[in-house]
Amino acid sequence: MAQQFSTPIKIMSFTILILIIATNMANSQTPPNQTTLVFYLQDIGKGLNATVSPVIGINGRVWSYNTFGTIFVVDDPVMVSPSPFSTQIGRAQGVITVTSLDGANVNILLSIVFNNMQYSGSTLEIQGTSRQRDNSRELSIVGGTGRFRFARGFAVFETVSFDAPNVHSIIRLTITLALP
């Protein structure tokens, strides 16, 4: 005949199980394979050397960063420092779409395509909503290829400088990754 456990023993067993799970979760908050990379994007929106350009928008409206429905393509150089003369290690290529009616948010799909240093041939995929009026914007790293295969993490975009007459931004890109 099977012995039945009383309710207090079941509750105590369940409590111990929850404590074990919570302890394991607390100990695994920072993965041992976490790494942080810092790069700089040179974002130029005007002139012959423009690296970001509107390609389509709503008919009858000015296509701009603040106009709902405007879609931009991006091919920014990725540099090791904020200087436009520093070493280029890749390109940030993708699409930006103004997705909020008030123009405050854009949806970003961006691939960091590495072509220099130890990451050559690898990519990182960034996706998410960017509150473009904030100085610091956090987006998701949803994957990668090559050295970054199965990568997960987040990317913080921070505007370092903005030259309004030339529509030239320097953006610090801090990437925090967990790799398998």
Automatic annotation (TrEMBL):
Subcellular location: Secreted, Extracellular space, Apoplast
Location (main, coarse): secreted
Alphabetized Pfam families for the sequence: Dirigent (PF03018)
A GO-annotated cellular component: apoplast
Residues annotated as signal peptide: 1-28
Family: Belongs to the plant dirigent protein family.
Subunit composition and interactions: Homodimer.
Name this polypeptide is given: Dirigent protein
Organism listed in the record: Cicer arietinum (Chickpea)
Gene label: LOC101500136
